[in-house]
Design goal:
With 411 residues, this protein is an alpha+beta fold. It contains 13 helices and 14 strands.
Length: 411
């Protein structure tokens, strides 16, 4: 009896015990669906987020003052680092202008309410002052309007570029361009609207952002001095690591950090969040694989039990086959292939359901495209065959060892 005949016999046996086979294959398909579905969802979400981060420019880094927080640690008072001043930020920009495109910004207010006429937003908006490179370095595209002019930057004109959510709230069904808004006790003219970039990882993202010229930001009274943030985008073929080392040296000089003294600022690569995300998704993949594996382990035990019942029910059939000349190897192959066929049928259904489930979850959470995890589909099918071999071996071994005379007498 060759392999093809064994496969045909496996299908005949499946057809004669259809309900039992369907239930067994369903157990396998649920295990594969959980495995492929979870891993597909993780890959889809990661793909979506990676695309978002790729638009932010991986070849850049940010410089901020070091934050150790208030209070004490281990009986010692945490060190308070001074803010990065406007003079220091501009000095750094001047020294780095030939090596990178540097943008300066300052957080003017967080949780700001904005008013236009009789309409007022919730106090959930952020106001940032930015220079001429801020929009391009942060990859903010304008949906309508224009960026700030050189004169507006230099004079600190009361103009603003607002986020999509703010525009929808204050100016429903009309263009915000040229309209006036009031915030932080001052009136600003809207000259542009930022293109919506979704909710972002921190809530409102650019949708609740208001950008004003940096010079205008320095003229607004605040409860505490402004701290300036610096973003450097590397142009040309300069190595990012080399540029970061050079920026560290320049910033230490600007901040007057003495030799051997801890730096009073932090440099963060723009892709560091994506690197952290990759680590987290790695852990999630491991967890998802373990969940699927445990489900499949239970399914394999169920399949083994079904195959043992099948051997018992077909004892007389096995005796007839042996009497007609079937060898131990052929009997073993018959039951092994039958178990593998059941697993493969369940696996195909599980993979299809897993891909649909995983992409559904990924689309609900992010904005990813339909993702086909060919690797995990292949892994799922390999696991199905392995489960079939594992579950079918002992029943096949038991069937092959049955005595033909005793088997023919079995009722």
């Amino acid at each position: 009896m060759n392999y093809l005949e064994n496969i045909k016999e496996g299908f005949r046996s499946i057809k004669s015990n259809l309900l039992r086979t369907v239930l067994t294959a369903l157990i396998i398909s649920i295990g594969i669906m959980s495995l492929v579905g979870i891993l597909t969802a993780i890959e889809g979400i990661k793909y979506s987020v990676s695309n978002t981060f790729s638009t932010l420019g991986a070849n850049s880094f940010d410089i901020e003052k070091k934050w150790d927080g208030r209070g004490s640690r281990g009986g010692r008072q945490n060190k308070m680092y001074p803010n990065i001043t406007e003079f220091q930020a501009k000095q750094y920009k001047e020294l780095m202008q030939d090596k990178a495109r540097v943008s300066l910004s300052a957080q003017v207010g967080n949780g700001v309410a904005v008013k236009a006429g009789s309409i007022k937003t919730n106090p959930t908006n952020s106001v940032i002052g930015g220079d001429e490179n801020f929009l391009v370095n942060e990859n903010y595209d304008l949906d309508l309007g224009r960026p700030f002019s050189s004169l507006e930057y230099e004079t600190g004109a009361p103009v603003a570029i607002i986020g999509d959510e703010i525009a929808e709230k204050l100016f429903p069904k009309q263009s915000p361009e040229g309209k006036s808004i009031i915030m932080l006790g001052r009136r600003f003219k809207v000259i542009g609207k930022i293109k919506s970039q979704g909710g972002g990882m921190g809530g409102g993202g650019s949708n609740r952002l208001i950008i004003i010229p940096l010079e205008a930001a320095t003229q607004i009274p605040t409860t505490s001095p402004l701290t300036f943030n610096i973003k450097s985008a590397i142009l040309g073929e300069t190595s990012l690591a080399y540029a970061m080392e050079e920026a560290t040296g320049i910033m230490r000089k600007v901040r007057q950090d003495r030799l051997g003294q801890e730096a009073s600022f932090e440099i963060t690569r723009s892709d560091s969040v994506e690197q952290t995300l990759n680590k987290i998704t790695g852990y999630l993949k491991t967890g998802g694989f373990l969940v699927g594996f445990i489900t499949l382990l239970g399914a394999s035990i169920g399949l083994m039990n079904i195959m043992m019942v099948s051997v018992t029910e077909r004892t007389r059939e096995i005796g007839i086959r042996k009497a007609l000349g079937a060898t131990i190897k052929q009997i073993r192959q018959q039951f092994l292939i039958e178990a593998i066929v059941i697993c493969v049928l369940g696996g195909i259904v599980g993979i299809l359901l897993g891909v649909l489930m995983g992409n559904g979850i990924a689309i609900l959470i992010g904005q990813g495209e339909f993702f086909v995890p060919w690797l995990w589909m292949a892994v799922g099918m390999a696991i199905c065959i392995t489960v079939g071999l594992f579950s079918g071996y002992y029943p096949a071994y038991k069937a092959s060892k049955l005595d033909p005379i005793e088997s023919l007498r079995y009722e």
